[in-house]
Amino acid sequence: MSAADPEIGPAPAASRRTRRDIWHRLGRQLARPEGAAGALMGRLMVHANAVPNRLAIAALDMEAHDHVLEIGFGPGEALAALARLAPLGRICGLEASPAMLARARRRNARALGAGRMELVDGDFRRLPWADGAFDKVLAVNVAYFFDGAGTAVAEIRRVLKPGGRAVLYVTDRATMARWPFAGPETHVTYDAADLRALLARGGFGPDHVEIRPVSLPMQMEGLVARATRVA
To answer: What does the alpha-carbon distance between residue 73 and residue 80 come to, in Å, rounded to a whole number?
Structure first.
């Protein structure tokens, strides 16, 4: 078989474009799951976010009376854990995907029915809650879809009480560089310095931000950022 044989030559341009389009559509589904593919994405998120959720929730240092907001809650697994950890508090959430909102409402029907939880569809850059409404804010694997100007982070800071804490988890850029669905068209990726800069643009001072690298299964590396509002 010669080097010119098409069986071993480079993939045709049309084939490469098709693969890029498939990965791009997958990246868009991660940003805003919808339709049948979105339902499948929700099931995958339950497994993919299990360890990041556990690490990020531990960093919140939850208390029984806490009022907590989760940004981009996906299928609602972390919401259920927050409700268990704050049985005397209130849990709220905002999600950009109506499909995930519906799934999370089913998952947390009991807490919603008891009036202990509120879930809404909305924009990360315009949170529909008053200043200082929450003791804690959680955001796991959603900062990839925040605006670069820091508006979403500024909104997180705004709804925190003075002394309140926000925890963000992201998978490190070095890991995400191996994933073809996490391209710049759909995801903003971070190393520790970039994550710290994002939090600074949102108003969190450098002395009140901690970023901890964490190792996950399958040789994945992540970052857990904990930011405190001081005034």
So the answer is: 10
Q: What is the pLDDT of residues 78-104, one digit of tens each?
A: 999 999 999 999 999 999 999 899 999
What's the pTM? 0.81
pLDDT in tens, 23-81: 344 444 445 555 555 555 555 666 678 999 999 999 999 999 999 999 999 999 999 99
Determine the Cα–Cα distance for residues 212 and 59; give it in Å rounded to an integer: 10
Strands 134-140 and 67-71: parallel
The first and second tokens of residue 157, run together, are 């800071």
Question: Which tokens in the block code for residue 16?
Answer: 């490469």
Contact 96, 72 (CB under 8 A): yes
For the residues of 157-190, what is the DSSP string, one character each?
Answer: HHHEEEEEEEEEEEEBHHHHTT-TTS-TTT---B
Beta strands in the chain (DSSP E): 67-71, 90-95, 117-121, 134-140, 160-171, 209-216, 220-228
Residue 174 vs residues 61, 109, 192, 204: alpha-carbon distances, Å: 28, 38, 11, 25
